[in-house]
């Protein structure tokens, strides 16, 4: 609606309101042309909330306007936005008999209007809350058909009471089976089939058809046009410093009310008066909060105000409003469309203000785990959507990697606040979901690898759980395939969003290669914490700390070295698995060869295996021993370590994949 049309409508309303207070003979001019102009403009443009409120007040208040003029106004009450609770309450309060009530003809018109706009009410539950008042109006014959129709629209199971059933039955008999009463009884019977109506329902009952289909279509056109105009007007200023009067699809399509401030103190300022950032800053301390704070969900300016002037009471009011809407949906007083509209607005609010974690986190590990679980499910959902999409959107790579990066920081926080095995498993589950992006034949070409934080990798590498270490290695092994695929793909200059050789800079790949080198140094090469190799990080252990730990280990036992304490034989999480694999080989050898007289005492070293063979024990080389440990881990569903080592060291991969005879020829090469 243009400002000129809104101004013209306001001026005409003022003229009609002034004329309504004077008898026809006392007026200086005929008011009917003015009413006709007002009706025409309302039909063409619709009515803003303030104009609608004024016209409804004019209709329900005793006046000197003739019935034809009042009817013309009532027929053209086209709201451009959702209708407020106050308007509905004012109309319901004007129904029935009384000297101060509008004529029954106007009451019929207002009831028809409520029937036609009940789906665009700002607070749909208001009609249900007035159910008793409306039901008691059934005695008034002139408005009974429309009251029955309105009750039929809002009746829910909770409204069907024995005393109301009896009242309807009695009234129906008194009115010779009024078809509208019978229609309402049929609605009651839908909720309680056991109601016995007998002869009453054999006649044809009212179908409660829409009072005016053409009026409904015109209302829809007006609200859609207003919503489109509002969207265009606010598209470029959603983050500006003016009240967003019709966010997104417009107030006509939204449950959440727009910012409106009333009962303002003399020295206060309303948000509606703010026009720019300077005005906002200068008057911020004097700005009066709007009537309904839930408008913050759809108004960026109010969001800024609550951010700078936080109020526990304000956010509690917002929470109460949302709880009320959801409760109405659960109780059947609001439809599913209302629920989805609310969820849509809340989603937009979260996108604009990014308060999700702030709203959920309460400085406890439990809330952090809840958010982590949410992100895991979100990642799973996004991947499922991409897998079923015909085309991969250009923003998919950026969005997914941003989610993974953010979750990495949350995971580090969790590892500090709640260093438990269950938390480790929850974090690993998230990254295992992320590996689906690499394993998927289609997605791997479009979604790049986002590595976990370095601190997280080394915390898990030195975890006390062999399961955690194995799952970490499995994730890193999967990433290796992704990097290799990207490095082998020629760079494209066609604007494609596919992953290729230019998708990762060399430093990023070297960072990843350093993780592999450190893990190989720990488990396979007995060179833990070494930073002498190309790309190795030394497990990010400060060099002075490594020197002190080396000295400490030697002071405890000169036969030990720090570099070997994290190998397969000595690692705290692998030593039991390692010696058990030797025990299994010994058991098999003893069962087939009675000459085996000695068992290995453990832990296994190259020297101890040589001594074992010469003292009546099994014949086992150092290379064979380590491969058998990796095979044993894989058989126990702990194959991540073997997978990573195989993918990193080509000779080891060939050896483990070879037949026993061919493998024997390769073992010496290790």
UniProtKB/TrEMBL annotation:
Which InterPro entries does this one have? CENP-I (IPR012485)
A GO BP term here is: CENP-A containing chromatin assembly
- Entry superkingdom: Eukaryota
* UniProt keyword list: Centromere, Chromosome, Nucleus
The primary site where this protein sits is: nucleus
CDD domains linked to this entry: CTF3_NTD_HEAT (cd22647)
Identification of the protein by name? Predicted protein
Q: Which organism is it from?
A: Hypocrea jecorina (strain QM6a)
